[in-house]
Amino acid sequence: MNIFRKFNATLARRPLLTQIVVSGAVSGGGDAFAQYLTNEPKWDYWRTARFTALAAVFITPPVFVWFRVLEKIRHSNLHVQTFGRMFCDQFAF
């Protein structure tokens, strides 16, 4: 099975868990890469673990729920719908 099909199937089946895992992996990888680019003398794996946990536990679940709330804003005019979602996102969250 193609890896993208498997990912999409997992995302459809368990969206929150999949988003948490992906968010943690991307955040951890980004932090490790940032440490590499700044020529840190030693890789601080605790920093990477903290950053991964913060993204996976404290950022992803509320944003996941918030996007579901924004999807409920509907209007027949696509521009009004888009700007309504943007307004709500910028001024309510």
From TrEMBL:
The keyword Transmembrane applies. The chain crosses the membrane at residues 50-70. Keywords: Membrane, Transmembrane, Transmembrane helix. InterPro entries: Mpv17_PMP22 (IPR007248). GO terms for biological process: regulation of mitochondrial DNA metabolic process. This is Mitochondrial inner membrane protein Mpv17. It comes from the Eukaryota. GO terms for cellular component: membrane; mitochondrion. One of its GO terms (molecular function) is channel activity. It is a multi-pass membrane protein. The keyword Secreted does not apply. Belongs to the peroxisomal membrane protein PXMP2/4 family. It is found in: Membrane.
